């Protein structure tokens, strides 16, 4: 039996998939120590894992920092993660000396879990609660101007903080290397291979196990009135205006509505028909989705996975780049549509078109067959893995470097043949065209590669 250490950031969407896995490992006789935060203490202890509180390592936040974290600022999240890593360094040094973990399970966004595993040379498995993202699948993420600006203007701050890690024995190239997926790290992804964008580009170190769930409910979709469920997740959910707009647009229809608003929305300020609209701080989402005919969602990965698992089509309202990636894929498979300004017509379109239910049902079967918790634990028990296989991404990068060189050699030759005439114009046009041209060539190469391998 193994000594296994779990690490996760203080977020429900990242912690929840790890809980059924921790319980299954304990039931199989493994010793599990779960390093987390008091907000999740009760849930973790219910799995029979040993809970280790890390609250004392959290930094005191200013109002400005707290606001940035609530708005999913990549810069602020990175800086705070670095601070926690440094604060936990001496504590984890003593913990690892005493407990001697055989394996670390770390959330993909948990710097202190990943970096500690690397520093102490402990095998680790990454828990990925979004899609697995590499240079291909990340094309699904469309960042807003605000998100791009946050990253660009935050780079100097992040670089400064990263340098502090060196003196503690943590060697990091850049922040991207800490959060991106590579083909050499054992990784769990809580979706199916067919739902994952560009799944073929990921090596066999990746296990696509579908949703990690405690409970399973029988579908109950036939009601006198259709049931609409609305939730904006657990982070950016203080959307009083949005909830009221949904109520105003939908409550006069022949439907029932359940809304989960979180703990910070003043429910008494919402105006609604109490016979048809039911509003709660939180609900058992899986149980509600087993009955719902439509889910209006922020497109968090767990929410979308649970919705598909319960064959519930969706009206998609993403708020971050990762959520936009999940929304795009959900739309591609025909299980939902993007919300436009007309909530009523969008909702009615889904409720009155059985094709959306059919598509969601198809992926329900796909998710069920992916193996879930038991497959995830089987994979963990066999870790670490050593596999000799072709890395499609590395091969693709070699091809990209080659095509880039050839592309610019052709442009230089063209300018030379024209004796420099129109050189500036050709150069500008070549620069503007270089990305779309090389992207198209890359995709052609990728299609050939996946056929050959």
What's the quick description here?
With 453 residues, the chain is α/β, with parallel strands linked by helices. Helix content is 48%, strand content 13%.
Task: Kindly describe this structure.
The longest helix is centred in the last third of the chain and has 30 residues, at 423-452. Strands 3-2-1-4-5-6-7 form a seven-stranded parallel β-sheet, with helices on both faces. Strands 10-9-8-11-12-13 form a six-stranded parallel β-sheet, with helices on both faces. Helices cover 48% and strands 13% of the residues. It has three domains: 3-210 and 373-382, Glycogen Phosphorylase B (Rossmann fold, 3-Layer(aba) Sandwich); 226-369, Glycogen Phosphorylase B (Rossmann fold), CATH 3.40.50.2000; 392-452, no CATH class. The protein contains 17 helices and 13 strands. The chain crosses the membrane at residues 405-435. Belongs to the UDP-glycosyltransferase family. It comes from Kandleria vitulina DSM 20405.
List key phrases describing it.
about 450 residues, alpha/beta, Rossmann fold, seven-stranded parallel β-sheet, six-stranded parallel β-sheet, 17 helices, globular
Number of strands: 13
Radius of gyration, in Å, reads 24 Å
Q: Kindly name the structural category.
A: alpha/beta
Q: Examine the coordinates and then state which fold CATH places here, giving the name of the CATH topology of the largest domain.
A: Rossmann fold
Strand order of the largest sheet: 3-2-1-4-5-6-7
Number of domains: 3
Percent range for β-strand residues: 5-15%
Main sheet properties: 7 strands, parallel
Determine the fraction of residues in helical runs and give it as a percent range: 40-55%
The mean pLDDT is 91
Main CATH class of the largest domain? Alpha Beta
> What is the CATH H-level superfamily of the largest domain?
Glycogen Phosphorylase B
- The helix-strand sequence is EHHEHEHHEHEHHEEEHEEHEHEHEHHHHH
CATH architecture tag of the largest domain: 3-Layer(aba) Sandwich
Family: Belongs to the UDP-glycosyltransferase family.
Organism: Kandleria vitulina DSM 20405
InterPro entries: Glycosyltransferase_28 (IPR050426), UDP_glucos_trans (IPR002213), UDPGT_MGT-like (IPR006326)
GO molecular function: hexosyltransferase activity; UDP-glycosyltransferase activity
């Amino acid at each position: 039996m193994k000594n296994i250490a779990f690490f996760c950031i203080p977020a429900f969407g990242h912690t929840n998939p790890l809980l059924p896995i921790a319980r299954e490992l304990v039931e199989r006789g493994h010793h599990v120590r779960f390093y987390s935060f008091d907000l999740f203490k009760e849930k973790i202890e219910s799995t029979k894992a040993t809970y280790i509180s890390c609250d004392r390592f959290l930094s005191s936040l200013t109002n400005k920092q707290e606001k940035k974290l609530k708005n999913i600022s990549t810069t602020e999240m990175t800086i705070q993660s670095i601070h926690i890593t440094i604060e936990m360094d001496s504590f984890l040094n003593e913990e690892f000396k005493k407990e001697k973990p055989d394996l670390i399970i770390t959330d993909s966004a948990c710097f202190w879990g990943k970096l500690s595993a690397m520093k102490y040379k402990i095998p680790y498995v990454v828990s990925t609660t979004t899609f697995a993202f590499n240079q291909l699948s990340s094309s699904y993420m469309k960042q807003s101007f605000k998100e791009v600006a946050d990253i660009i203007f935050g780079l100097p701050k992040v670089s400064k903080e990263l340098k502090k890690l060196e003196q503690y024995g943590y060697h990091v190239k850049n922040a991207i290397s800490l959060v991106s997926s590579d083909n050499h790290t054992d990784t769990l992804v809580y979706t199916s291979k067919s739902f994952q964008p560009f799944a073929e580009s990921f090596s066999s170190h990746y296990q696509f196990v579908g949703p990690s769930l405690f409970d399973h409910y029988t579908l109950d979709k036939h009601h006198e009135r259709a049931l609409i469920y609305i939730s904006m997740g657990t982070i950016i959910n203080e959307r009083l205006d949005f909830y009221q707009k949904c109520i105003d647009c939908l409550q006069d229809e022949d439907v029932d509505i359940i809304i989960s608003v979180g703990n910070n929305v003043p429910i008494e300020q919402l105006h609604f028909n109490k016979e048809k609209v039911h509003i709660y701080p939180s609900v058992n989402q899986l149980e509600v989705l087993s009955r719902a005919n439509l889910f209006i969602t922020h497109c968090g990965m767990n929410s979308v996975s649970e919705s598909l698992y319960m064959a519930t089509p969706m009206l998609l309202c993403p708020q971050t780049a990762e959520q936009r990636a999940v929304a795009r894929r959900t739309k591609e498979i025909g299980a939902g549509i993007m919300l436009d300004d007309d909530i009523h017509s969008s909702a009615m379109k889904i409720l009155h078109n059985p094709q959306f239910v059919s598509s969601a049902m198809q992926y329900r079967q796909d998710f069920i067959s992916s193996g879930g918790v038991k497959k995830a634990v089987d994979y963990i028990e066999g870790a670490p893995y050593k596999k000799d296989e072709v890395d499609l991404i590395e091969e693709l990068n070699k091809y990209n470097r080659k095509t880039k060189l050839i592309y610019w050699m052709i442009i230089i030759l063209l300018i030379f043949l024209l004796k420099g005439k129109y050189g500036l114009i050709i150069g500008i046009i070549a620069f503007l065209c270089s990305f779309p041209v090389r992207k198209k060539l890359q995709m052609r190469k990728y299609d050939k590669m996946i056929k050959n391998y």
